[in-house]
Amino acid sequence: MALPSPWIPEFAGKRWRLLATLGARPSTASGSAGDGSFAPPLEKIHVSENDPKTVVARHIDPLHILLMADTLDLDPEWGAIDLIEELEATFGFKIQDEEAERCCTVGDVYDLICAHTAEWDDQEGLCGSSMVFYRLRRALRPDDKRSITPSTPLALLAPSPSKLMDGLSKRTGLRLPLHTLTGLGAIGAVLLLAGIVLTVVASFNAHWGFAGASACVAMIALILVWRDPSRFPKGIQTLGDLVNRAVPLNSKLLKELGGRPADRWSILTSLSAEHGKLEPAGISPETYLHKKSLDEARAA
């Protein structure tokens, strides 16, 4: 739909003022000086997802910070600490408090990891993907291995994603990505929490009838959660998809067994996805660790 012509310059003027507020500078390119345009600030970006340590400079619109920036939505205190502890255990080095405090984005954490693990990509060993695939296949069909391939849909292997994932993790000793509740299961989880809280409050105030009703709601909700089949993590439909997600999560184990660990970026995004709200494919170097850092960047 075409915008009314009087609106366009008005919007442009507001946009220019916003860009200037965010730190953009007037363009000095030939032929553009004095035309009121702005050259957005330079930013380093990673050339490819598979080789994030290679960076180039580009101009970005500062509106990206306001409109497009995303966050893992970690808890500023405990969520970030849990992720850092896992990274320390996986890569085998200690992240100092002052180093952690300087990390606002996933890219900052990646740069920190690279600074401490310069030789990581030079490691040799057996193929980690093959090791994980064969271990999963033996757990699924020990007597009929040829019927299982990387393209086998997980939905054909078990009717319940939760039973399949939990069973595979127990039989193989591998850490697998977290499965999620279905919509009904999520409702049950909310009702369970609400029922427990209301039961405690009602009992404390001697409202026994209301406490009993709340307890019944909590029991029903517990059944909903317990019987929920769950669903596979987003982006995981086949055994091959599961292998690709499991390799970075088990890099430390694979290394101990003589395997070649995953690359640093894959490990970082996979562990971040386990603690945050984004899937590995949706995480970029510009992704903020928590809303606090994103809010501070927007306010700067």
Description:
By secondary structure, the chain is mainly alpha-helical. The strands form 2 sheets. A two-stranded antiparallel ribbon has the order 1-2. The two termini are 34 Å apart. Helices cover 52% and strands 5% of the residues. The protein has a domain at 183-227. It has 13 helices and 4 strands. The chain has helices at residues 7-21, 63-67, 78-91, 97-101, 106-116, 128-140, 161-172, 183-204, 208-227, 239-249, 251-256, 264-275, 291-299; strands at 25-26, 38-39, 42-46, 55-59. The chain is flat.
**N-to-C terminal Cα separation, in Å?**
34 Å
State the low-pLDDT regions, or none: 1-50, 53-68
Helix content: 40-55%
Oligomerization? single chain
The succession of helices and strands, N to C, reads: HEEEEHHHHHHHHHHHH
Biggest sheet layout: 2 strands, antiparallel
Q: Helix/strand-derived class?
A: mainly alpha
Strand content: under 5%
Radius of gyration over all CA atoms, rounded? 25 Å
Give the beta-strand count: 4
Strands of the widest sheet, in order across it, are 1-2
Number of helices: 13
Average of the residue pLDDT scores: 79
Please tell me what the overall shape is: flat
Short description:
It is built from 13 helices and 4 strands. With 300 residues, the protein is mainly alpha-helical. The chain is flat.
What topology emerges from the helices and strands here?
Blueprint lengths: L6 H15 L3 E2 L11 E2 L2 E5 L8 E5 L3 H5 L10 H14 L5 H5 L4 H11 L11 H13 L20 H12 L10 H22 L3 H20 L11 H11 L1 H6 L7 H12 L15 H9 L1
Antiparallel strand pairs: 1-2, 3-4
Helix pairs in contact: 3-12, 5-12, 6-10, 8-9, 10-12
